[in-house]
Every structure is written in structure tokens, then in C-alpha cells.
Amino acid sequence: MKKSSHSLRLLLHNVRRSLKPAAGARVLCANDVAEGMHYGAITRLSDAAIAARHSLVKVGSDAAHVAVTGVSDIPLGICLDEPAAAEEPVAVALLGAAAGTLRAVASGTVTAGDYVVPAASGAVRTLPVAAGTYYIVGRAIATAASGALVEMDPCVPVQRVVS
Questions:
Q1: What's the domain count of the chain?
Q2: What's the pLDDT score for residue 39?
Q3: Residue-range definition of the domain harbouring residue 136
Q4: Residue 103 DSSP one-character state
């Protein structure tokens, strides 16, 4: 028993010594490596309550916040949470960086194969034929009625001018 206790103390001493940085050396931690890098989703704070999960969001009052998109906004991603108030942390699936399909709230009927663009209140709608500037955020891979969730293949928002 005495021998194993001594061996354990020696092992702990060696581990502690190997982890102690040399004078003037910088300690690198695992979280330093990924600073500024994200893989498909980010966490931000909400500018206000968000009424429905799967709403499109844009950069909010500053880079640390998100807000629900309107018809003419450039979306950042889809909010995967439903914060009840401002300043609550939310997960945002980044458009064009998500690992798979995403769901969004449909505004009007969206048909499989349609390009989808932002609608009012963070929803998506089919790319209109009416003149205007729109931001395509994906392509529907299923059909959905208004107010339902539509599954889509997301993309980085692409500006489309319809004339």
C-alpha cells in the first residue's frame, strides 16, 4: 500500500510539473483553438421575445444579438429556440453552414422545389414573381401549408432581383 501511495504522489507531481508553464510562456487552453470558429450554429442573445421556433433571424442591435427578420432583411440563420424575453441566449443555425436541412415557418403555401425568401415575422415564403429585391435562403424539399414548418435545404442568402 505504501509503494502505490508513493507512486501516485510521484505521478501527480510529474503531471503538475509538466502542466506548469515556463516563465513568460502562454498557457493554451482547448477553447483558445476555436476562437472565432463555428460549425453550423452559433449562440446569440435575443433582442426581444421570439414568438415561434424556427424563425429567420438577422443580426440584431449589435453582433451579440439577433432579431426576427422582416420581408426585406438579410437573414443570418434560423433560431432554434423560442426566447420569452430579451437578452435570453438562443441557438442560431447558420444559413449555408448547417450540416443538413432546416425547418422554417411557412407564410402561405410553400411547394417542394420552391426557392424560399424571408416573409414577415421571421417566416419564409415562395420567391414572388412580383418585381422586387429578395434574398433566397434555401429551397423547399417538402410542401407545407401556411403556418406549418417547411423543410428546406438552406443556403447563404443570395440576392435575387425580380423585374
A1: 2
A2: 85
A3: 102-162
A4: E
